[in-house]
Amino acid sequence: MDRSHSLVEEARSRAVEVLLGNGREIGLLSARHAYQQVNGRDAMIGGLGLMSLDDPAAWELHRRSLETLSSGQSRLGNIPFGIGFPDVPDESFVATGGTFARSKSPEQRTRPTVDTIHAGCVDNSLWYILGHYAYHLRTRDRSFLRRFWPHITKAYLWLQYQDVNECGLLEVHEAMDWADLFANRYNVLYDNALWYAVHRAMGYLAAALGEPPNGYLPEAEACRFKLNLLLWVGPEIRRDLRWVSDNRSEWLYPIKRTDTELVVRPYYLPYMAFRDYADRFDTLGNLLAILLEVASPEQTAKILDYAYAVGLDEPYPIQVLYPVIRQGEPDWRHYYWVRNLNQPHHYHNGGIWPFVGGFYVAALVKAGRLEEAERQLEKLARLNRLGRKGPWEFNEWFHGVSGRPMGFEGQSWSAAAYIYAFESVQRGTTPFFWPPGE
Questions:
Q1: Distance between CA atoms of 88 and 57, rounded to whole angstroms?
Q2: Mind listing the pLDDT tens digit for each residue in 425-436?
Q3: Which residues, 6+ apart, have CB-to-CB distance to 25 below 8 Å?
Q4: Which helix (H) or strand (E) holds 321?
């Protein structure tokens, strides 16, 4: 067995240890010592790794996460950012004294509490529905799906109301998704690629229960059409300005701007706001557009070729933004200085994230670039082996230029995305999105 193959296999074993080691009675925590909660985003992405394993105990762990998140659903249907126990030491909550919440009585200490630090994030509900979809696809447990169908439909309804102008896409407030310290806003690529997938997942789950289709699949296609119309600039998409004028005249101004000022781009724009837009490569949003089939094969090729050409996989897969935002630019914010996080080549501002690297490998598999996917999987294994305290740290994020670890160790989604990437390469297809014949 050659060294690279041995490393890739060892990384999978280590990833399984980290992922299962972060399991608790209430579900999958986000990391070993930080983020001591079941997070509506992290736990569901972690579920892609858990559900990729041939281990019913892993499936049960994901099930517990779904149950916990359901228990904290808001009155209006939103799935919480996170749920955990108060008084638990947590390295990530520096500003609140090392724990996300303090109990006021012994009874409170033993009761899970909803964390409201990012209460307006929309992708918790998006990933929650996709987490149910992955669980059902793996287990075919109709009784569990039936039990939580009211929670799922309530989360879906809450998401529908985030489409404040009823255009068919979500309007997302600034910093209200995984990039929760960043200036993406309004019609954001990342959230709306997931929104397209949620429509498809809802159609599949409704059919599994014999529920009315409720237009889920037509809504998915409408979402895909509008995403491409609004956020792709180039000949691959025919922009029908007459349709825009008749149906979404709000979009005429920004579309004319991007057509005139940009002419063509080999990637989706990260967002379109009111008479404004950003021109940079949002890596996760573009990879999800590939993986979830928002992008056509021609668009997929352009996206992946561009990511390779500008070196986003160097020194490891993958930098999450290109080019980085610098102080004085329109999308720079003063809060980027918080905890030294979003300086150029840090964190959301061009840092390297292993969980996004896992989606990169999966997107390469989706595109049929299997040799390159194998190469990137080996680089991702080497990245996850790095640590500040010791090897196989599965760190949260790394500096975009030096490639050195800068986040918290033992990260669930770093481990889970590696498992998902490994399984994608082994199978030559991407699990869960979408099943054959669906």
A1: 25
A2: 999 999 998 754
A3: 64
A4: strand 321-322
